[in-house]
Design goal:
heterodimer; A: about 130 residues; mainly alpha; 3 helices; about 70% helix; about 0% strand; disordered N terminus; B: about 350 residues; alpha/beta; eight-stranded mixed sheet; two-stranded antiparallel ribbon; 14 helices; 10 strands; about 45% helix
Chain lengths: ~130, ~350
């Protein structure tokens, strides 16, 4: 055992944890395994299949959203589109508030011209190259 | 014996407390909003030194990632580092695009919104020239702007992990070419590309990283600093933004599939842009193990620009470790500050 691993006096060493060892092993090898997986994904047939599956899932999602919208409307429950529209209106309000805030900041800084720091800073000698 | 439900409830409460604490500690460098247009926000970070370098620095973020990665937490904030080193720092936050922004094009970003922000920086700082720092997709925008306006107010161009060669984006290219993923279908179906698809795209680039992160978190659960540092990055990675539809369509076709930037055939406002027309000092910082922007996608940039003063640094680590983490704080940022300082007077 290395000196650094010696437990403090009066304490017994932590028991070997096989799950922790497995997790460490996984973490250490993950990059290599991920690279191997992406190499497989890059191959033309696999990439085409994955791409087509994503395309198909887009269609499925679109159809489900449209199907759900009718059911939700009949139950008088807001649909996903209703929630998005609400979010958009809140976003527009945020934009308006931001424009006002920026205007106020500019009005204030116009009055504080002298409070700005001088633009005279020079690089430290070691940085000159 | 404590019931399992109590144990889980206690863990959930602990995690919620950590998340609240992280939210309070994120993006705390003092700043003011100097310009807003649509969802775009232009922030100015308040100088913290008695004097500043003459040339202001404008950070241009990616469209699909939130900019707080640059101001992660005190002591691990690139913006804070720059401000304390004496730079006047501005940052463009593109914001959360809505359905009405699906028509925003690359031309809008490069030839309208970006020049507009540069004019705002010039007006606010009362300085003619501006240094730009582009990260990832923001780097593409700043590079295209520099090629579009070679006689413009750009003083220096600092790029971090900027993809320029579509053929180097091998996985994205494999998915988008042939009979696979159809970018037009995505845009026509959703308008903007949903954030969930962006997150999925990042995950597919390194499929086991999430599992590895969770196991690593388990192994270090007793170390609160590790847990917080880990969760900060995980939180940012899962906080992707939707991609405005037409901009995505154009990049998918003309950059990833057509590789037109490298070929000098990428058009903005009807002009084919040549990277060789960029003459300002250029520094490109990239990561050795970047799985998002592989070296094959980014390494041509410095070779192609026409600047006499140009350099490329390859840093050990991954995509995020360029702008966050111990290596960035102790090695990368001080080097960047040195590079910028001599060119910002």
């Amino acid at each position: 055992m290395k000196p650094a691993d010696t437990p403090p006096a009066g304490k017994t060493p932590a028991p070997m944890d096989p799950l922790k060892a497995w997790r460490d092993w996984f973490v250490q090898n993950e990059r290599q395994w991920s690279e191997s997986l992406t190499q497989i994904l890059k191959s033309e047939p696999v990439a085409r299949t994955v791409g087509q599956e994503i395309n198909a899932s887009l269609y499925r999602q679109q159809m489900m959203t449209q199907g759900m919208a009718t059911s939700l409307q009949s139950m008088n429950v807001p649909t996903r589109d209703d929630m998005i529209a609400l979010g958009e209106r809140i976003g527009q309000l945020e934009d308006a508030v931001a424009r006002i805030e920026a205007l106020l900041v500019r009005m204030r800084s116009a009055k504080e011209v002298n409070a700005k720091p001088a633009r005279t800073r020079k690089p430290a000698a070691k940085a000159r190259s | 014996m404590t019931p399992w439900s109590d144990v889980f409830a206690s863990r959930r409460a602990d995690l919620a407390a950590v998340e609240q604490e992280m939210a309070r500690e994120t993006a705390t460098t003092p700043k003011e909003l100097v310009y807003a247009r649509g969802t775009l926000r232009l922030y100015r970070y308040l100088p913290q030194t008695p004097d500043v370098y003459r040339v202001p620095l404008l950070i241009v973020m990616s469209l699909v990632s939130k900019p707080y990665i640059f101001d992660l937490t005190p002591g691990q904030s690139f913006v804070e580092h720059l401000v304390r080193a004496g730079f006047e720092v501005y940052l463009i936050d593109w914001g959360l695009p809505r359905a009405e922004h699906r028509g925003l094009t690359i031309d809008d970003y490069v030839a309208d919104l970006l020049p507009d922000c540069i004019e705002q920086v010039r007006a606010t700082s009362a300085v003619e020239d501006v240094t730009m720092l582009g990260y990832c997709l923001g780097g593409i925008f700043t590079t295209l702007y520099a090629a579009l306006e070679p006689a413009g107010p750009l003083k220096n161009l600092l790029l971090i992990a900027t993809p320029i060669n579509g053929e180097g984006m091998e996985l994205q290219r494999a998915l988008l070419t042939g009979q696979g993923l159809d970018p037009d279908l995505i845009v026509d179906t959703f308008g903007n590309v949903p954030a969930s698809m962006i997150e999925g795209a990042f995950q597919i680039l390194r499929p086991l990283q999430k599992a590895s992160g969770q196991l690593s978190l388990l192994n270090n659960a007793s170390d609160p600093d590790f847990v917080k540092a880990h969760l900060r990055i995980v939180r940012w990675g899962a906080d992707a933004l939707p991609f405005p539809g037409e901009a995505f369509r154009r990049l998918a076709h003309d950059f990833v599939k057509g590789n037109k930037i490298v070929r000098g055939e990428f058009e903005v406002r009807g002009r084919k842009l040549k990277l060789g027309s960029i003459k300002v000092p250029v520094l490109h910082v990239l990561a050795e193990h970047d799985h998002v922007v592989p070296a094959a996608a980014s390494r041509d940039l410095v070779r192609l620009v026409g600047s006499a003063d140009k350099d490329e640094w390859v840093i050990k680590g991954g995509h995020v470790s360029l702008v966050a983490g111990v290596g960035a704080v102790t090695r990368t940022w001080p080097r960047i500050v040195d590079w910028l300082a001599t060119r910002s007077v």
